UniProtKB/TrEMBL annotation:
Signal peptide range: 1-30
Protein name: Selenoprotein F
A Pfam family it matches: Sep15_SelM
Keyword Signal on entry: yes
GO cellular component term, pick one: endoplasmic reticulum lumen
Keyword Cell membrane: no
Family: Belongs to the selenoprotein M/F family.
Cellular localization per UniProt: Endoplasmic reticulum lumen
InterPro entries, A to Z: Sep15/SelM_sf (IPR038219), Sep15_SelM (IPR039992), Sep15_SelM_dom (IPR014912), Thioredoxin-like_sf (IPR036249)
One Gene Ontology term of the molecular function aspect: oxidoreductase activity
UniProt cross-references to SUPFAM superfamilies, sorted A to Z: Thioredoxin-like (SSF52833)
Length: 168
């Protein structure tokens, strides 16, 4: 009986070790981060919060997209980084492609005037994006907005762009 108990105990230890290694490997894979360029190519930026990825998953049932989102997101926090504001922004878009983005057209025609520090710039073949500017009008962040609704643009700009330029 002693040999049988020792054999069973050894099997249990091996099984527990395999489970532990699998869980550890899964945790490491889940925390894998992509480079900024890789994320931008996928349409994600470091400005996306990881909690946004969970909300995203409720609507888009694609595990690969969720995985990419989680590799490009920023952990949710209440620190000063989450309260970054910008002096202005450039809404860059290709004029020929505007027909495919009715939400962006609506924003430009009806909402843009609420943001005097946001300029529209038409660049050939450019996907729709917001280029966030610091106090010296230097580009700080670029955010793809291909699939944003008008209300998302409004909310984002209200939270992230200072109401008036310091240069006024």
């Amino acid at each position: 009986m002693g040999a049988l108990n020792e054999y069973i105990l050894t099997k249990r230890v091996v099984i527990l070790w395999v489970i532990l290694m699998t869980a550890t490997a899964t945790g490491v894979a889940a925390k894998e981060q992509l480079t900024t360029r890789q994320c931008e190519t996928l349409g994600f930026t470091g400005l996306a919060l990881c909690s946004d990825c969970n909300t995203f998953a409720e609507y888009v049932k694609n595990p690969e997209l969720l995985s990419d989102c989680l590799k490009c997101c920023t952990e949710d926090s209440n620190d000063s980084m989450s309260k970054i504001t910008y002096s202005g922004a450039i809404l860059e878009v290709c004029m020929r492609k505007l027909v495919f983005y009715p939400e962006i057209v609506g924003f430009i025609e009806e909402e843009k005037d609420k943001f005097p520090t946001v300029k529209v710039q038409y660049v050939f073949n450019s996907p729709p994006k917001l280029i966030m500017l610091d106090d010296e009008d230097q580009q700080k962040e670029t955010i793809r907005i291909d699939n944003w609704k008008r209300e998302h643009m409004l909310q984002f700009l209200q939270e992230k762009v200072k109401p008036t330029s310091a240069k006024d």
